[in-house]
Amino acid sequence: MKEPLVSVLMVNYNHEETIKESLESILNQSYKNLQVIIVDDGSTDNSCEIVEKIQDSRIELYKQKKNRHISYVTNVGLTKVRGEYLARIDSDDIWYASKIEKQMNFLKVHPEYKICFSLVDIINAKSKVISDNDIGGLYDIKFKDQAEHLEYFFFVGNCLALSSVLMKTEVMFEVGGFNLGYMQSHDFDYWVRIAKKYPIYVMQEHLIGVRRFGERDKNLNNSNTSEVNSTRFYNEYMDIRKHFFDDLDNELFVLAFQKYFKCKDSITEEELECEKAFLLCSPCNPTNSIPPVGIQRFLELFEDELYVKLLEEKYHFTLKDFYKLTGKHIYYDRVLEDRVMENKLLKEQVKELLNNNRGANEEISRLKEVISEYENSTSWKVTRPLRMLMKRIKG
After folding, report:
1. Concatenated DSSP letters of 129-197
2. For residue 321, how far is the Cα from the chain centroid?
3. CA separation (Å) from 390 to 71, 342, 375, 381, 395?
4. Is 76 exposed, middle or buried (0-12, 13-18, 19+ CB in 10 A)?
5. Which residues contact 227 (CB under 8 A, 6 or more apart)?
6. pLDDT tens for the 395 residues of the chain, in order
7. How far apart are CA 22 and CA 10, in angstroms?
């Protein structure tokens, strides 16, 4: 029996340095029945020429005239999928040879799962495995069940590498395409939407290498840290959180978040809406400030007198309690916070330098006094002719 077709989608923009290695890692898979879809996002380098030189009938290259970024070109690629299964890979990451085979075997043996990921290695520009302090153990994750990964996504964030995913194509058809409004968190939004419908499994094997570039090459990778990327990620993350509970089955919601409920016996539709509002006010990574999306949810509830009474009577949460929340810091700016901390550190350094300078000046004054005492002493004056004679001899 012929193996099921796996469609592999790669999107690329100006990765001529890595696309050949990434593409070869796909073509050299032990699992051979592949459709390799490459959507080039208007590259200005030699990426397309490199792809066109590789002779393999499985490759399909779709060149875009304009650069529209990752979500748009991903959706273009999704329309080209013909396989029963779908895998994704970034054009700077690599797969190990048995990646697809192992994941296909897992999904075959475990039909209760329609999507799986794997653990990853972090590699540098030269494809060597490195330890990366920025990522740390982010991708070293294991979920017990569907409720657990929803909980993790809500309170912590993304922990899944896009290049490690393999899923049934029917999942794509049900969930739809990527949200064009997200750039930094496009994949996280997609995983959240899938997690509401299907359990996710992370194979406890390192099956891929995720590339991290050094400081000189930081612009080559969309995931590298920068002021703009960090700001955009936080803004997108807040919007994803705002819609986190939309279309989430109430039974699954209770299973995932009941331990955080204000009232553990909340069960009616109205009570669960109150619990969602409280949850949306809970601090999230990387700040302890109250997210504005939670305040917004309460403002919506207060438009209905039913919720005003319910919040007071069951949750002992009055309008005065809400006003206390709105009196706290809500609109968090990570970059501004970092600059405040940097300014505080600089002030401390200046203070330390001034103290050191004051100590140095005091020492200079003390030494000057010692020198003055020597020069005005009787022994110094008596030995002056001898010092002059020694100076002439040395000369």
Report:
1. EE--TTTTTTT----SSHHHHHHHHHHT-----GGG-EEEHHHHHHH-S--TT-STTHHHHHHHHHHTT
2. 34
3. 85, 57, 18, 15, 9
4. middle
5. 335
6. 789 999 999 999 999 999 999 999 999 999 999 999 999 999 999 999 999 999 999 999 999 999 999 999 999 999 999 999 999 999 999 999 999 999 999 999 999 999 999 999 999 999 999 886 666 578 888 889 999 999 999 998 899 999 999 999 999 999 999 999 999 999 999 999 999 999 999 999 999 999 987 654 444 445 555 778 888 888 898 899 999 999 999 999 999 999 999 999 999 999 999 999 999 998 766 566 788 899 999 999 999 999 999 999 999 999 999 999 888 877 665 655 566 566 667 777 777 777 777 777 777 787 777 677 766 776 666 667 666 766 777 76
7. 9
Q: Half-sphere exposure of 268 toward its Cβ, with a 13 Å CA cutoff?
A: 5
Show the tokens assigned to 268.
């009616």
Beta pairing partners, 123:
129, 211
CA–CA separation, 69 and 180 (whole Å) = 9
Tell me how far apart the alpha carbons of residues 251 and 151 are, in angstroms, rounded to a whole number: 14
d(CA 124, CA 209): 9
Write the CA distances from 126 to 130, 217, 347, integer angstroms. Answer: 10, 12, 40
Q: Is 344 helix (H, G, I), strand (E, B) or coil?
A: helix
Burial 138-166 (b: 16+ CB within 10 A, else e): bbebebeebbbbbbbbbeebbbbbbbbbb
CB 117 within 8 A of CB 170: no
Do residues 31 and 100 touch, judged by C-beta distance below 8 A? yes
Name, in order, each residue with C-beta under 8 angstroms of 195's C-beta and a sequence gap of 6 or more. Answer: 146, 149, 150, 153
Q: What is the pTM of this model?
A: 0.81
Measuring CA to CA, which residue among 210, 212, 205 is closest to residue 98? 205
Strand partners, 118: 203
